[in-house]
Amino acid sequence: MAEENVPADEFIEDNEVDEVVAEDQNSMQQDFDEEGEGNDDGFQGENLVDMVPDMSVQGFFEHKDSVFTVAINKSNPNMCASGGGDDLAYIWDRTNGERLHTLTGHTDSIIAIEWSFDGEYIATGGMDSQIRVWKMSTGCEFIAALETSDEVIWISWHPKGHFLAAGCNDGSVWMWSLPSGKVANVFYSHTAPCNAGAFIPPGVGKRLATVDDMGTAIVWNPASGEAEVRLTSDDQRFDPGNEETAGGWVCFTSNKEGNVLFLGGSSGKVKVVNLNSRTILASLETQTESVEKIALCPVLPIFACASVDGTVALYDSASLKFRKSLPHSEAVVSCEFIPNSPYLLTACGDCIIRKWDIRTGQLLAEISGHQEPILCMAVAPDGKQVISGSDDKTVLVFNCE
């Protein structure tokens, strides 16, 4: 249903464009193995922490519980935001760790925080079924409390307009127009938790893609609310599960034209789908557990898939063939490419961020400082620093050049 007429020109149809990529040369990967030993004196964890060097150059330490989400303002990259299990979000300065604003009002954990494309607004999404929005140009003025029907799982700003979308645990997807806070559309079709969503193409946002825990992917027309593409696990070729367990879609990304989706499943499968022809280009089964993040390299035809099985799988986005696996000691919760480079950052449950050269698979650096598992990270627009939130209640800033 729609409670407000959304200008059609906010979602202009693009010409369909085929993905054109060139293959990069194959290369060898440098394997590594890291093993930590504890003492039998009852203080293994504390002694291990003492052994881990703190390489952070700055940090934010006011959270009282795990930090689940972080974001960097692209319009003012020194301005960062974080939200966590203490029901609070903060805006702070990554150059000195100073708290700039405290964002209150949630009654349960904040699991998503995002800046609008121009940095004018910041939104937080919580397990209390609420999204709260603040306006930065008026001194971080609170402007809207947006109610949903269930726990919020994700939020996504339109890349060119002040429209905010969100997906919920009951499968509903909502879209609002800001600053009015009026509902622009509600999309009811998912029958399971809507695990991820984003406007595509990334820089245009003419459509809204969403995926759920039952293996359904839908591409919506945001203005009309109509489903333009619907792919379900009823088609066995599209099923994200395996012979032992059912599965759903956990994450996805799209190519820059928005006509190809790369989807990561809870059973470790990755599917590549052409939205124009509704065809499955590849079903990739290198990994054995949930794929938490998929990232496309900005300078080479390669994409990376981070998995709970402790690997990051690299694939050629032209041939869709497996290239190599980057091993980690524990679950990999996220991966991000440094802008305009072939360098990949991975965040792992072993408290370490790793930097890789995907041309060779070489491990370039291990960046430590957290004392408990990393839960989220964000890379600065200039690629010089990364911030990460952790179960240890801190957000740390690291150099990654």
UniProtKB/TrEMBL annotation:
Note down the stretches annotated as region Disordered.
1-44
| Keyword Repeat in annotation | yes
The subcellular localization recorded is: Cytoplasm
The cross-references to InterPro entries, in alphabetical order and at most eight, read: WD40/YVTN_repeat-like_dom_sf, WD40_repeat_dom_sf, WD40_rpt, WD_repeat_multifunction
The UniProt entry annotates WD repeats at 60-102, 103-139, 155-186, 325-366, 367-401
* Bias kind Acidic residues: ranges: 1-22, 31-40
* TM segment ranges: none
Write the protein's name: Ribosome biogenesis protein Sqt1
Keywords associated with the record = Cytoplasm, Repeat, WD repeat
